[in-house]
Amino acid sequence: MSDASSPPATEPAALEATILRVKEGSRAWASVPVAERVSLVSALRDRFAAIAEPSVRAACVAKGVDPASPLAGEEWLGGPLVIQRTLRLLQAALEDVARHGMPRIDRGAMRTLEDGRLAVKLFPGAALDHALLPRYVAEVYLRPGITADNLAEHQAPFYRRPHQGKLCAVLGAGNVNSIAPTDCFQKLFAEGTACVLKMNPVNGYLGPFLEQAFAPLIERHALAVVYGGAEVGAALVHHAAVDAIHVTGSDKTHDALVWGPPGPESDARRASNAPLLTKEFTSELGNISPILVVPGPYSARELRFQGRNVAGMVANNASFNCTAAKLLVQAKGWEQRGGLLDDIEAGLAVAPVRRAYYPGAEERFRRFTEGRPGLRKVGQAGAGELPFALIPNVSAENFRDRIFHDEPWCTVLSETCVPGADDPVKFLEEAVTFVNEHLWGTLCASVIIHPETLEDPRVRVAFEKALRELRYGAVAVNTWSSAVFGLGNLPWGGHPSSTAQNIQSGRGWVHNPMMLEGIEKVVMRAPLTTFPESPWVPGHRGQLELARRLAELERRPSWLKVPAIAAAALRT
Hints:
The protein has helices at 12-30, 34-63, 73-100, 127-132, 157-160, 179-190, 207-213, 215-219, 230-237, 251-259, 264-272, 300-315, 337-350, 361-369, 402-405, 424-438, 457-469, 482-486, 543-555, 562-569; strands at residues 110-112, 118-123, 137-142, 167-171, 194-198, 223-226, 244-248, 280-284, 289-293, 325-331, 354-355, 376-378, 385-386, 388-394, 412-418, 444-448, 474-477, 519-525. By secondary structure, the protein is of the alpha/beta class. The protein has two domains: 1-103 and 161-249 and 541-572, Aldehyde Dehydrogenase, Chain A, domain 1 (3-Layer(aba) Sandwich); 289-475, Aldehyde Dehydrogenase, Chain A, domain 2 (3-Layer(aba) Sandwich), CATH 3.40.309.10. The longest helix is centred in the N-terminal third of the chain and has 30 residues, at 34-63. The chain is globular, with a radius of gyration of 23 Å.
């Protein structure tokens, strides 16, 4: 199992037998004692470690990356590292459930926001978190009505009110190899739900590795892995034995399943709220991820740092990420506006041109870039590859432009501007309104702001208001929102303002080992600049070694491993 070949599609008879087998197993799975679940998660940590290297190698083959090159670190960061960290945190949370009935949250981690709602600090947790990401802080903002006094009533609902067995159909993502297994971790261990996981055809090669790692759960019929395209997926989710569905993919997949194929009948169902599917449906469906740049007194070094940072948000995984930077929002008339674009372009010039491994990418690239005035292409693309593209000065008044309502899902970053000039308060008001009202998606956004700008009390009030009002499930300050995804203990999902009729980036949460209900968003704050730079910055020479060492640290934490991690991080 070292190549990138995918198993054949699961035949209808085999799919039927698999669904019924796991449905029956779901009843026993719901009653497994917490202590036994802890042991299972512990075993999974070793089993996933065993498949880490061959699964990364297969992903590199599929994506055209040399497995020995620094760029292969992307696959370790987005695969084994996320998986091992998620399992470690999940095991700790389940140990708390065994002792206390729910994962423990110290009152000292709670504070009340200006609008009266509760915020809970989830990162940093252990001392190693402080050491690896100094000055990073992340909180979850909860919905109105949840307080420090009643928070326990909004945690671990399965363990407080266990069901008698449920089966969830999980439609896996094709881009990042940690998504499918961590989606299943959430359903299996936080929600007590058995899973049939259908692999995405794009990374179906991962399935046999997951079957090997998940063997203890497959043997007890709590999980199964199946293969195929839309036809297999539709048969799975519509099966009468399936109680719930979780999809990571496209909003078009969601809408086709819930409302039917596009056309008058689908429109009528949506208008009358008469869905074809009435099962519990959670999802993560992509985003046009904006980067809001608040005008401020940035030095050339600080602007260059953030330019490289944004370039990494575009280039990582050939830009096939729902978190990839897709729209830079700047202040009209801000004198450093063009300088940041130049720094992003310079950062992209360091990144290697990548294989466009996701189907349809070349056509999407053409649709977004054709006829664009001022288009900047970066990199020389060969056959099957795509250069990076910067599309500057897209009119924020042309709301019909596809840049604002159609996720590119390729190597394109656009830029627009809103009124505000050098006034940070006005910019924040205009930019938040713009992305909330006119930009598709509710998954994640980033805000870049200078610490000196925040010293003005008027700006600080406007900034905190902006963080509360941005309708995104993850808001990252001065860093990439993928850090929220990758840390494993920060809930990940679209903002709860979406509806089935207007699904945007989806509904529900994964990466939620604290088993919280009533989540509105996660807000992560980071320094404007860091040393060393983040591993996703283009040209990071130590990325592969750093990612492998971080994955091993999460598997078996030890302070003795930190010096070697620091040395790899410094090889920028």
